[in-house]
Amino acid sequence: MASWQTLSDRINIVSPSATLAVDSKAKAMKAAGVDVIGFGAGEPNFPTPQNIVDTAAAACRDPKNHRYTPTAGLPELREAIAAKTLRDSSYQVDANQVVVTNGGKQAVYEVFQILLDEGDEVIIPAPFWTSYPEVVKLAGGNPVEVFSGHEQGFIPTVEQLEAARTQRTKAIILNSPSNPTGAVWDEELVREVGKWALDNHLWVISDEIYEHLTYDGVRTSYVGELLPELRDQLIVLNGVAKTYAMTGWRVGWMVAPVDVAKAASKLQGHMTSNVSNVSQRAALCAVAGPLDEVGHMREAFDVRRKAITTALNAIPGVSCPTPQGAFYAFPNVEALLNRALGPKGSIAASSAELAALLLDEAHIAAVPGEAFGAPGYLRFSYALADADLAEGMRRMHEWVVA
Asked: Angle at the Cα of 232 (from 227 to 233), degrees rounded to 5?
């Protein structure tokens, strides 16, 4: 490649999405005739509820949905998201604080493009969703990882966060319930971290996309509810993908102070403009409707959560805490490293190598902890059919003890 053809430093410092890479390889193997059990993608296996699908089908036939809408989203959808925020998070926001985005990822991307200048730092509790540090880098910022292992429930202390803070710290990301660990921050810690951010003039980016997927009586704690005084420096990220099994519809949003929302709409106007009208109509049906179907899906996830945790802990060398939210198990697999595994006696020096061996030899797709800032772990999504989950765990157990 000639010097004038080189790619930008901006794109060269960004790592590919490990979760999508694992999912893509698993799908390629399936297409080639290999029977792969996929624990990689965070995608519910349920169909989108029928009333939402019916709404979308009707929207396709209505000519008003064949045109552009306001960049920030359909006014009635923004109103519905504001009402949903009050219903679920117990605090009032206005529709002009809402920006509807092409999936939750676009909301994450836009937030950091808006907030960060070159060299600004963002504290990211680890294990973290794989895209967080990459979108910070794309905005010219520096991700600062604060790791908390399974021995502390994958949840940091305020002391750890404070030790990572510098004069360049601009924001902190909260993700509870967590991807990849399923950890849920309790009310006391959420309030404490919010107060710390308030005192130190930090933006709080609260990713609440798994808010309705909690178990064992645990409730999602909302920093915007607990600390009303923080709302001027709080940006909430959310979407319909996980709650309503709508990953393919690509509708997310942010709820932010008005000046941030205006800036996001300005940026989006030069990127994608409005989200697909049909998808917005489907999302309106979802967020304005009851949570009955969500409850049924949560019950199914709960059964799978217990099954996968039991199965993983029955594998010699694997230790898996019980997740309280989302639909991921995040076992420690350090005891499986640097030892002979499987019929071939294969050896993995890292969890990344272990994930590759599991895919190639046991035909199980899991995501290595390196993708989440947590070497020595694997992430298993249990958002798949019960029978597939059981078969995948059987294969892993059989492979490890062979």
From this structure: 85
Residues of the chain with pLDDT under 50: none
Does residue 116 contact residue 170 with C-beta atoms inside 8 Å?
A: yes
Q: What angle do CA 179, 180, 185 make, to 5 degrees?
A: 60
DSSP single-letter state for residue 315: S
What pLDDT, on a 0 to 100 scale, did the predictor assign at position 1?
Answer: 61
Structure confidence by residue, pLDDT tens digits, 328-352:
999 999 999 999 999 999 999 999 9
Q: What is the pLDDT of residue 20?
A: 73
Exposed/middle/buried for residue 390 (C-beta within 10 Å: 0-12, 13-18, 19+): middle
User: Which DSSP helix (H) or strand (E) runs through 287?
Assistant: helix 277-288
Beta partners for residue 214, in sequence order = 325
In this structure, what token pair is assigned to residue 36? Answer: 């792969």
pTM: 0.94
Tokens of 131: 């895209």
For residues 366 and 282, what is the distance between their CA atoms, to the nearest angstrom?
A: 31
